[in-house]
């Protein structure tokens, strides 16, 4: 019942709140270990979240973990999505673009904080799942509820970019979409964030 009503009961990344305005927040996140998969969404019949199953299998969320230990890894939130599709602005939506010819999506699970180095995480059995380390990073963040459809996300990204530039922040990368709830959560109770890296 809690998941339907948006209760987030899994580990979420810790961050330091640098600044809070009525429009957005500036947050600093510590280094993290991430499991990610980059794929062509057309492989999954247009479902941009097709990579979710690969990552869920790696951590053992749906049965036996598909990793070298095999070790069940606790699910965390949010699930991060980055896309190489172009958005009608000044830059592409994301930095990871696959082979440069197709639109690709990179989906990420942030692993539990107990993993501090990539080599500490169990090795994925599926070569499409890659374990990477991300260093400390700073983001401008806008939180919103509802279903994060393309139109809504585009609007949030455009507004956040405008606010960050207005306030003198230098944008240093493309946006990420963070979703904290499973798909069956009622839309008004979903927690989503658009995150743009800043200097």
Automatic annotation (TrEMBL):
SUPFAM superfamilies: Probable bacterial effector-binding domain. Pfam families: SOUL (PF04832). It comes from the Eukaryota. InterPro entries: Reg_factor_effector_dom_sf, SOUL_heme-bd. Belongs to the HEBP family. This is SOUL heme-binding protein. It comes from Solanum chilense (Tomato).
């Amino acid at each position: 019942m809690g998941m339907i009503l948006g209760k987030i009961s899994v580990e979420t990344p810790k961050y330091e709140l640098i600044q809070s305005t009525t429009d957005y927040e500036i947050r600093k996140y510590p280094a993290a270990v991430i499991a990610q998969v980059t794929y062509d969404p057309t492989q999954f019949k247009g479902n941009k979240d097709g990579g979710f199953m690969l990552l869920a299998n790696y951590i053992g969320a749906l049965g036996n973990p598909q990793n070298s230990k095999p070790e069940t890894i606790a699910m965390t939130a949010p699930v991060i999505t980055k896309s190489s599709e172009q958005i009608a602005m000044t830059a592409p939506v994301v930095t990871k673009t696959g082979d440069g010819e197709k639109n690709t999506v990179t989906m990420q699970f942030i692993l539990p904080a107990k993993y501090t180095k990539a080599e500490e995480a169990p090795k994925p059995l599926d070569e499409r799942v890659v374990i990477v380390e991300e260093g400390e990073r700073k983001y401008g963040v806008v939180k919103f509820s509802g279903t994060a459809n393309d139109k809504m996300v585009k609007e949030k990204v455009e507004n956040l970019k405008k606010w960050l530039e207005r306030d003198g922040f230098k944008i240093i990368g493309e946006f990420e979409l963070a979703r904290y709830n499973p798909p069956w959560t009622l839309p008004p109770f979903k927690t989503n964030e658009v995150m743009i890296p800043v200097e």
